[in-house]
Amino acid sequence: MARQEKESRGLVPGLLSGMATTARTAFRPTHTRQYPDVAPDLPPRSRGVIALLADNCTSCMLCARECPDWCIYIDSHKETIPPASEGGRPRQQNVLDRFAIDFSLCMYCGICIEVCPFDALFWSPEFEYAETDIRDLLHEKERLGEWMATVPPPAAFEPGALEEVVVDEPATEEDATQPPEATR
Amino acid sequence: MTVTEVVLRCLIVLVGFLVLPLLIGQTEHKLMAHMQGRLGPMYAGGFHGWAQLVADGVKFVQKEDVVPSAADKPVFRFAPALALASYLMALAVVPLGPVTWGANVPGSLVWVLAVGGIGTLGTLMAGWSSGNKYSLLGGLRAAAQLISYELPLILSCASFAMAAGSLSLVAIGHAWTPWWLIWQLPGALVFLVAATAELQRPPFDMPVADSELVFGPYTEYTGLRFAFFLLAEYAGIVVMSLLLAVLWLGGWTGPFDHQIGVLWTLLKGFGIALVILWMRMSWPRLREDQLQRIAWLWLVPLALLQIAITAAGVVLMSR
Amino acid sequence: MVGVGAGGLASADMVLNIGPQHPATHGVLRLRITLDGERIRRAEPIVGYMHRGAEKLFEVRDYRQIMVLANRHDWLSAFSNEIGVALTVERMLGMDVPERATWTRTLLAELNRVLNHLMFLGSYPLELGAITPIFYSFREREELQAVMEEISGGRMHYMFSRVGGLRDDLPAGWLGRVAASIAAVRRRLPDLESLLVGNEILRARTRGVGVLSPELIEAYGVSGPIARASGVDVDLRRDRPYLAYAELFAPGGPGRVVVRSAGDCLARLEVLLEQVHVSLDLAQACLDRLAALPAGPVNVKLPKVLKVPEGWDYVATENPLGFNGYYLVSRGDKTPWRLKLRSASFNNVAVLGELLPGTLIADMVAILGSMFFVVGDIDK
């Protein structure tokens, strides 16, 4: 980098070269994106908002427990499903009453989505949900469900990627059946 | 001069005083944006944000007028008016054409330099009266700056006056010949640098220096009073640019100058204003002592040299 | 205000608080300076306005959750911070990281370094009064942030490292887009440089200002580009290689350590500017290498509950701003017993108390800006 150590020649060449650059830039196309009028291009992995596919949720509470700042609220109750066939045993199933994420606390780390064993949570690049009241950033089950429509398909991998992608183990039965009260 | 004419001239000066600085301000917005690869204001008024400064003005009017309890209140309130008024008085005597002027006084050049200097006093008063340490430092920097640029400014103007043999701006405009472009070039450069320093424009904006002194003397100002300081800054650019256009670029002289002479003055002044704006976009800020150094080691000797050249030229040409 | 010698005007010292809210302090650093006129008599950096208790929070988080917090102390070097945690844990576990992950990590770390340096190459001239460079540098930042966002989903807090590798593999076509971004940044960097390199005003403001001696650097533990600008030739990428740096900094490799000897603000700026070029070279080398690597995973399968065996370890990495070290003490739990963070900015700012006395306020801003700090990295 000899050019940086070089002493300047002439009267004020450095100042003039600065002026030349700004003048040149003035006649080039700008790089402004007129945001509210022109939507930004966001990649599929962009972490904008978390969407919930409530049908897949088993209220296992893994996401709520793994969340670093505990911004996920889950309420559920157990229902007994009558046996499907004559003589079968009635089964118990978790029913999701409430699933809420407080986006005023969320750090957008994505751990909840990563740990979800049943693919109930997804990232959506959608980001336009600013509110004037902080309490409105608490998105309940319905609002989280609405984001599902904006979830893009996952991006394909580079050729060098290994075909079998390492996935987390599914949650054990023990985790899935733990009552919600015991986790907090 | 009839009363109607006086009223008309006053009105024109006032309208010019209110419109031209906004034009410069808007130009700065857009020019700066494009030099930085941006678009700048695009919404206010519809077409490329032409009404941005009008919108700014409306915003400033709505803001609360805060006077700090530690401030020297009368001085604090009066300072913006002083800064603004000085350039209004200066603009009144700057001729746009041989007959287009607010007032034609025999010593109009001296008048412009005299009242133009008062504007800095407004900055000084603001800095002193705000009751804020940053403002105080900014005010003192403004005072230090005043000492360094006033002398070269006056010396370079003296050279133009000598060349024309008159202190009247109208007479200087009439005496101008294209030969001045080279003959008076060093003086013009000195004028440009000193005027930028007087206007506290980058690279000589040490008194306001937002990254050092927050906003210097204007830190405590809000609303309309703050807007007055901003308006004064741009009015200052208008006055100084037009002045240099008349002194060095021949003002209204140009093709068809009988019909569109005024336009020539405005165009030349606008060109000089663009250079003043351009410097802001391209350069960092100097330090106060470096300005003093430039002023005393470069500008004053250069201005004196220019006076000598002018004197020699005048003597040679009068033969 | 100005003393005019013995028997002249009496002048009283003025105490001026620069910050915690001040345009030059990048947030909430506070400097209490005692002034005689504009001349600084004493300067005392007061830190702690952004203390968030990160180290204490680490103690009640598992190692994946720690990444979330760890990438936030120096928000301009988020990826490098994550890497530090991951490397520390991996070394204590004795875990081997797939080669593909290592090269991707190195690539992202170097892109992160460019992003960080570009930030300061824009903000430093801004403090000296030049308003345009920051827009040029942010244009380049945007270029690189787009590819960072594409792979990680985040623009600042990437949260892309995991113990044992990375969260995801590379998206299809990403390597090509990174190459295009690097080329675009290289092509447009001369614009930024023309406003800085050789600018007479910038030189006047920075040359010979705030000269930091190697002795002070040693005494205060200053590191990174600031130390190298004073001729202290230390770079952990070369001296204690981690990730793929051993190969990159090997003789004949693209890696080289940028060193200046002047130790003034100008030297610090020059080091930063040249490091951008070096890091772009390194990133390009990583790209070439990644394209040639055989197919493979980017992470290892972790146990459901990751516990680090009892013991301690200290891993330091060369973050964009200097040494960033994690001292991890584990008692065999899934959370650390103690995770001490050694961040670069804390030491780099501590030296200000020695550097500022005798300078002017305008120089203070020039020096402060050239110490390249992030307030979150000071207070943690």
Distance between the termini of chain A: 59 Å
pLDDT < 50 runs, ≥5 residues of chain A: 1-8, 164-184
Order of helices and strands of chain B: HHHHHHHHHHHH
Mean pLDDT across every amino acid position of chain B: 87
Principal-axis shape of chain A equals elongated
Largest interface between protein chains, with number of residues from each side: A-C, 45 and 55 residues
Proportion of strand residues of chain A: 15-25%
Description:
Chain A is elongated, with a radius of gyration of 26 Å. Chain A has a domain at 49-155: Alpha-Beta Plaits (2-Layer Sandwich), CATH 3.30.70. In chain A, the strands form two sheets. Chain A has a three-stranded antiparallel beta sheet. In chain A, strands 1-4 form a two-stranded antiparallel ribbon. Chain A is an alpha+beta fold and 184 residues long. Chain A is built from six helices and five strands; from the N terminus they run ααβαββαββαα. Residues 1-8 and 164-184 of chain A have low confidence and may be disordered. Chain B has twelve helices and no strands. The model of chain B has no long low-confidence stretch (mean pLDDT 87). Chain C has 380 residues and is α+β, with helices and mostly antiparallel strands. Chain C has a single domain (54-379), classed as Cytochrome-c3 Hydrogenase, chain B, CATH 1.10.645.10. In chain C, the strands form three sheets. Chain C has a three-stranded antiparallel beta sheet. The two termini of chain C are 39 Å apart. The model of chain C is unreliable at 1-7 (pLDDT under 50). Chains in contact: A-B, A-C, B-C.
